[in-house]
Here is the input.
Amino acid sequence: MGKRIAKEVSIAIADAVKLAKAEVIAAYPITPQTHIVEHLSELVANGELDAEYITVESEHSAMSAAIGAVATGARTFTSTAAQGLALMHEMLFIASAMRLPVVMVVANRALSAPISIWNDHSDIMANRDIGWIQVWAENGQEAVDLTIQAFRIAEDKNVMFPIIVNIDGFVLSHVIEPIILPDQEEVDAFLPAFKPKYKLDPRKPITMGPVGVPEIYFEAKKAQDEAFRNTPKVIKRVWKDWAKRFGREYNAVETYRMEDAEVALLIMGSLAETAMTAVDKMRDEGKKVGLVRIRLWRPFPVQEFRRAVSKVPVLAVIDRAMPPGAVNGPVATEVKAALYNAGRKPRVVNFIAGLGGRDVTVEDFEEMAERAAFYRKKRPKELYETIGVRES
Amino acid sequence: MIPEFNKFKGFSLKNLPEVEPIAPGHRGCQGCGEILALRMAMKALGTDVIVANATGCMEIITSPFPHTSWRVPWIHTAFENTAAVASGIEAALKVLKRKGRFPKSRHVDVVAVAGDGGTADIGLQALSGALERGHDFVYICLDNEAYMNTGVQRSSCTPFGAMTTTSPPGERSFGQMTWKKNVPQIAVAHGIPYVATASPAFFLDLMNKVKKAALVKGPAYVHIYSPCPTGWGSRGEDSIKIARLAVDTKVFPLYEVIEGKYYITRKITKPKPVEEYLKTQRRFRHLTPEVVAEIQRRVDAEYERLLKLAEL
Here is the structure.
């Protein structure tokens, strides 16, 4: 077992990629992902990681090169944020549909305009339906664990889908935290070498990415969705194995103090730790508040989620992306869709908070819980409410 | 000179490879010069290759699922990124060989194939990136001088004066009003070891150049003139004749640039008039004698420039 040491989360993620023995890294620098790829290029330059590092000329080419590399049978990693993820957009669908298990860490950042290098979730929310498995890390340890797990999940023969590990830009990527990095032997025992059944190899030629004529396109997409919806079986098995080996548990939906909660906050990402503090504080004051955290965002864990919120009367869903003209923020929209046909379900109140690096404090979470409690007996009039915005 | 070239004696009619990495039965138009050029290129390369193909005619006609014309490993992902995909393949082979996860002794040529749109327009950035990084791969641009797969729209490789569906002649236009982008020269500017132009009318020359492109270590770029009867309004049976005329009129000169040094591989001492070439295709039918004369002047000047480069 590795020692617990203080490390910047980005550096620890790069170390995790090294422990996973990634073979090709194709990356283009973008704030706040830079520390991850800088450290990786250092590890390659020093010979600590035997990999090819492709300094591509754009994120579109980063994903394209990653696709070429993984199709040839090499374990492949990349990382990006915001505009970079947007530029990759086209290729993200293709990596999934061609069943190419690229592993990517996204240091979540606001999308332009106005240009902002700071944290929110608008980048990944524009990429919800790309067919990538998507998980969220709340702290540095989770970021490291999820990155190592990502290779095993993505490359499993019953998965063969790409995967994104979301980490909040700056507020998670750039903080120094106590983190345990597993030993190389432990990771080697957990993560076998990547040996895909089909790859680009002159010894056994195959055609990858043919034309999908109308007679076959729909069937191909249905098959992709079925395979994708089956991936949680493997994901859960990998998490179980991880818990056995490393003692840290992971679940598709995590709950905190939900036992008799009358109001629940729902959030994804590192703000959940702030929300936890707010929950503790309110519980001390006798207020029955709980917290639901979605770790597995795609495929969306409908059953686990329904179970987690079946008893709570009001659910405050916190979105960190502004959806112009939509009914709700993307998370609230998803959550409502998951609940609409459920038996017992809470009233859903949607808050939009923390855009473009705006801080979301313990007090903000308290306010959201209080406001949500108010809607227990009264329907909210607005589609969503914002938190922390100055009114002019 | 590049040492690998010494081992290569060149293809001749007596030693043409029998291998056909592209199977017959594809869905190309009659008289397609592009698939013909690609077939020759692939014969020269053989079967120890991995091909990355951009979106375009060649991709469409060779891979309608569940059929494939490819007897070698082949991948298509998108339009603008073929050079980037090839970069990833090349990097993967390198590390897999180093780690003993792919036979070290087995040489595999990584080949990127794209049309003029996928090369000169939407794919130029990815191409430049891959050439600059120095990946060991061959980039083949099959230039049929417009976006043929989508219905003959102009590209930056469409020649001056040509009519396409987005460069139509009219009251205020005589067709394409810009000169063809010179992608081979852009490739040369990257300082890569090998650049060549080729034509299916001179198929041995084409195959030799593609083979040399594969033999050099590092990036190589081959720009192949590819007649398109459907898009050019020419007769299918005339494709090779037109390709030959393009060379003999100096419209499409054949040359190599080996480590920065220019070699004209087919010197044109008695050039035919450009008009003779233009007459073979409906896309030039609307041109006035003035425009034809302007094209002739430009072709002469470009060729003079090329001769001077070869003297350096």
Observations:
- Chain A touches chain B at residues 23-24, 26, 50-52, 54-58, 60-62, 64-74, 76, 90-91, 94, 98, 193, 200-202, 205-213, 216, 220 (CB under 8 Å).
